[in-house]
Amino acid sequence: MISTTRAVFRVEQRINYYIIMVNGFHQSQTQYLNQKWRQSRGLTINPNTFGPLTNLPDYTFKDGRPTPLGVRQKFRLEKQRGYAERIVKLVKEIDFAVERHAKLKEQEKQERQQILDSKLKPKGDVLL
């Protein structure tokens, strides 16, 4: 059975040491970024995932030709395109479900009205 204990020591303002003890063996890692500071300013947790160094090309041609996409940049674009396609698909499914639910409610309402209209018929002198 694995017993895990964790201890966090705050050494400096920006360096956190996480010490994990598993079955008597110490494992530690250092986290150099102040995550709370980045979150309070609306920045990403990892600064290498977004920004001009990541999104812009590494070089440009002086004559204005477009630069080819990097391998990681192309991968990120394909990943974002996949996310967009999935979002559009799921939104269409939700719209279909909402419309179908509204149609079913309307049909149920019409069926009830038809049943009430067929049950309640005038009798007597009104028919003549």
From TrEMBL:
Its main location: mitochondrion. It is found in: Mitochondrion. GO terms for cellular component: mitochondrial large ribosomal subunit. GO terms for molecular function: structural constituent of ribosome. InterPro entries: Ribosomal_mL52. Residues 87-114 form a coiled coil. The keyword Translocase does not apply. Keywords: Coiled coil, Mitochondrion, Ribonucleoprotein, Ribosomal protein, Transit peptide. GO terms for biological process: mitochondrial translation. Pfam families: MRPL52 (PF18699). Belongs to the mitochondrion-specific ribosomal protein mL52 family. This is Large ribosomal subunit protein mL52. It comes from Cardiocondyla obscurior.
